[in-house]
Design goal:
By secondary structure, the protein is mainly beta. The chain has one domain (2-224): Porin (Beta Barrel), CATH 2.40.160.20. 11% of the residues lie in helices and 61% in strands. The protein contains two helices and 17 strands. The strands form two sheets. An eight-stranded antiparallel β-barrel has the order 1-6-7-10-11-13-14-17. It is elongated. The structure holds nickel (II) ion.
Length: 225
């Protein structure tokens, strides 16, 4: 009788051990690699040249890149995560079709949107499915801004977009596969706003308010150390 109680206790504690191994733990380092799509929910004020409103705004297309993600667990429930990626490259189009006779596409811009997020895991020790919510800050660096050759030939030059600093929020989940491997999916929103400056045949132009505010979707494979 005593022996069977003892073995029941051992079985129960072994069960608890294997349950707790399903959840993340303080000190874990989680590295994820996969695909990240930036899908702008964009709008803009009109393009102005020399103070004249051209009556046309901008729109910004989606782009998918290699997403990299590093997270460190401060506690069993809380991690700090850095989102990195290979540079995103977005088409910037006119808001109406071909207003200048130079095509629908105005330019191409690259950006890097490093984001630091603090995430809270609900941390159900009995489940391989580990959802979390997080909030953080983003700094988006725009570079390599280039008008299309048709717009370049039309006299547009020196395109520059201001960098953006803003908040972000996300929901996501890790699903434990086996050993230290996870698949992860996350959806995040980032507040990215910028303004553009350029020249048209020597006259200064600008777009004062460009709202990009993208939804950012990631699917990654993770490994915890
Ligand atoms: Ni915004």
């Amino acid at each position: 009788m005593k022996k069977s109680i003892l073995s029941a206790c051992i079985c129960a504690s072994l069960g608890l051990l294997s349950f707790s191994a399903l959840a993340h733990q303080a000190g874990d380092i989680l590295v994820r690699v996969g695909l990240t799509t930036v899908a702008p929910d964009d709008s803009s004020s009109n393009i102005e040249v020399g103070g004249a409103d051209l009556g046309v705004g901008l729109s910004v297309d989606n782009n998918t890149q290699l997403g990299l993600n590093f997270a460190y667990f401060l506690t069993d429930n809380i991690n700090v995560e850095v989102l990195a990626a290979t540079p995103f490259s977005h088409d910037v189009n006119f808001s109406v079709s071909d207003p200048l006779g130079t095509g629908d596409k105005l330019a191409e811009v690259k950006h890097l949107p490093p984001t630091v997020t603090v995430n809270y895991y609900f941390n159900d020790a009995s489940s391989a499915f580990q959802p979390y919510i997080g909030a953080g800050i983003n700094y988006t660096i725009f570079f390599d801004e280039q008008f299309t050759s048709a717009n370049d030939n039309a006299g547009l030059a020196d395109l520059s977009l201001d960098n953006s600093f803003g908040l972000s929020a996300q929901v996501g989940a890790d699903y434990k596969l086996e050993d230290n491997w996870y698949v992860n999916a996350s959806v995040r929103w980032i507040d990215i706003d910028t303004e553009a400056s350029f020249n048209l045949n020597g006259t200064a132009g600008k777009v004062n308010d460009i709202t990009i505010d993208p939804w950012v979707y990631s699917i990654t494979l993770g490994y915890t150390f």
